[in-house]
Amino acid sequence: MEDRKLPIGIRSFEKIAENHTVYVDKTEYVYQLVHTSMPYFLSRPPRFGKSLILSTMKAYWEGKKELFSGLKIESLEKENPDAWQAYPVFFFDFDEVNVSCEGMLENLLEAHLLEWEKIYGITSHEMPLGVRFGQLLRAAAEQTGKKCVILVDEYDKPLLETMENPELVKHNKAVLNGFFSVLKSEEANIRFIFIIGGTKLIDGTFFGAIDHLRDISMSMDYAEICGFTNQEMLSVFTPEVKALAKEQGLTQETCLEKLEAECGGYHFHHKGKSIHHPYRLLSALEDRKFDACWLETGILSFLVNRLQVMNVDVRKFTDGALYATKRMLREDCTVSSDPVPLLYRMGVLTLLEYDSKGCFYRLGFPNEEVKHGFLDRLMANPD
158: which of 101, 172, 181, 313 fits an S-S bond (Cβ 3.0–4.6 Å)? Predict the structure, then answer.
């Protein structure tokens, strides 16, 4: 098999393109989204490729046409004379630093603002952070003649990372709300907004500042925007699948079944295709072995500790009776006593069925690795 680079853990589309890394083309979704003016929100579990989608959008809005050579969006934009123009992009990455201490969130926002203020020649450092952001949006639009693009990566990390400190959660919510509330007053200077995270918290964050925000997390049209379907895996990673099957002494068919049982089973619409977790799938293909890499991410320890605080009965997860409405899945998991929204957000649970009469979902484990890893760890730590 030729030496092929798999995009394990790579969040930068630019890095993938420049290093000629194997890429599953998702740019058709990017094309569909950027050709509207509606603000969007997308939720997916950790390490599911949502940051890569946001990075792809960043490259598009920066007009980096050369990075998209041979991809679907290149042909889709072929007859568009306005394509590949550079817009002022404000990209917030809340996953890049530890914000578990008070003041760290403000420091991160301050660092972003200082960088952009140098670009646009603004020196109003004594003003509140939100006011400075509004001045930047106006200055960028005036100086470039283009409306601004705002991309926010892992917006809820400052909240989820501080769940055991309710006062800090409250503080960080107030900081986010105060900072991004300017989006409403500066709407005339904004071209596009895309926000990603684990869950759309209905109250206490900056969502109230954005009119007509469309949550595509459970949309059939975007169910496959992150992760890999079986068809995508076979069309792009066939050499790696064959190598894995050979290494493990399996037929290709049996290998595919095992990959589904270990890495697949995610559904983000009740009628959607089964989606493979990209990090786990790529790790199995790269190492040519089936390994419980999900257990090594630290997610399980965090969840078990959190569920112990919530006094969750293990039987809830073994009797197959887990149900939730769409609104319940959006509940603020930093304060909710129901573990289901948090477990859905972290990828422990996924959608299995939908009851149209009762308007609720039945949820369950996506695959065997998650099921056994989670239950074994939870029952090993009963107190």
Answer: 172
Q: How far is CA 232 from CA 228, 307, 347, in A?
A: 6, 35, 21
Strand 360-364 to strand 350-355: parallel, antiparallel, or no bridges (unpaired)?
antiparallel
Does residue 56 contact residue 26 with C-beta atoms inside 8 Å? yes
20 pairs with which residues across the strands?
none
Distance CA 161, CA 254 (A): 39
Count of beta carbons in the 10 Å neighbourhood of residue 256: 18
Distances (CA, A) of 181 to 89, 200, 211, 281: 18, 16, 11, 39
Q: How far apart are CA 356 and CA 335, in angstroms?
A: 28
Q: How distant, in Å, are the alpha carbons of 108, 340, 364 from that of 328?
A: 31, 8, 15
Q: Where in the chain is the domain with CATH 3.40.50?
A: 13-222
> Distances from the Cα of 107 to the Cαs of 154, 183, 307, in angstroms?
17, 20, 31
Rounded to two decimals, what is the model's pTM? 0.92
Please name the amino acid found at residue 326: K
Dist. CA 142–CA 262, nearest whole Å: 52
In this predicted model, what pLDDT tens digit does every residue of 88-137 receive, in sequence order? 999 999 887 777 788 899 999 999 999 999 999 988 778 999 999 999 99
Per-residue pLDDT tens digits for 128-164: 999 999 999 999 999 999 999 999 999 888 888 887 7
Q: Which CATH architecture has domain 13-222?
A: 3-Layer(aba) Sandwich (3.40)
Through-space distance between the first and last CA atoms of the chain, rounded to whole angstroms: 49
